[in-house]
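step 4 of 6: structure.
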Amino acid sequence: MKTFFSQGRRMTVVAAALAVAGLTGAGAALAQTPLVIKFSHVVANDTPKGKASEFFAKRAGELTGGKVKVEVYANSTLYKDKEEMEALQIGAVQMLAPSLAKFGPLGAREFEVFDLPFIFANADDLHKVTTGAVGKQLFAKLETRGITGLAYWDNGFKSFSANKPLKTPDDFKGLKMRIQSSKVLESQMRAVGALPQVMAFSEVYQALQTGVVDGTENPHSNLYTQKMHEVQKHMTVSDHGYLGYAVITNKKFWDGLPADLRGQLEKAMAEATVYANKIALEENEGSLAKVKASGKTQVYVPTPAERLALKKAMVKVHTEMESRIGKDVIDAVYKATGFDPTKL
Ligand code: LMR
């Protein structure tokens, strides 16, 4: 079966067997009773995404009267970042919630608009995009790739971390910074003279601990639950960019579901989305408080002038990335939020 990844394929024995037998993963999953939906993700259970996926699993079981069993595999226990996308396409899993920064390798570069530094002033602006026309248009682009987008789930705004204080753009010079697989994030790091390094989420803690990279960027819940604060001496609450998720499923699988079950699962997803977006902020605030209480990481909140200097240094990424993301997509986001890059 053709997938979008030509290299580094690591099919599981089960997936390989399915492919050989000519079964789609959708067909195989549908033949089971109860119908099992494998939902794989890379973060800890105790995060906005971890909790929301468990919530969805519970409500899916209840609303379908036990006809559907959602099995959640957290913390990269089943697949890492890149592998999970392939697993979805071949039907070895039925649901994922990758961060919006991870759709580039699928060819859906437009999603990287969410990574543009400083494009969202706050969660309200972000929701104007995810719950509006732009969010829908982006999901439509996935359909041609055999993927159905079900919902946008929040995590939150990111902080930078390293073993030195990061207050001015100059402080980033020469630092090796781990990023997700997004060209926009690559460009964002280069804008301040850092050296971006793409790495699977599951490998970040060790890379920070051993000095393979010097620093990274995360919402607080990810930093704390992966214990990165134990190996990062400084953190700057820069809120410079957003990290959230698209819950996605294999289109063939989804379209092949009996209509009543699909409707019940849609309802479970709608409820899980309300829940996810309600808890995200408090989860991140809770994690920040725990990082501070640990005393292991010095938490710094930049002054308005320092944050503005960072913004000025990074906002040029918006024009640099026009040809990759599409100027129309960027303009549509500006229009929805009112952001004007010429007025900082
Ligand atoms: C990351 O790789 O840093 C994040 O995308 C992890 C996640 O799923 O929140």
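step 5 of 6: annotate
 - The CA atoms of residues 109 and 287 lie 31 Å apart.
 - Residues 159-241+285-343 form a domain with the D-Maltodextrin-Binding Protein; domain 2 fold (CATH 3.40.190.170).
step 6 of 6: archive
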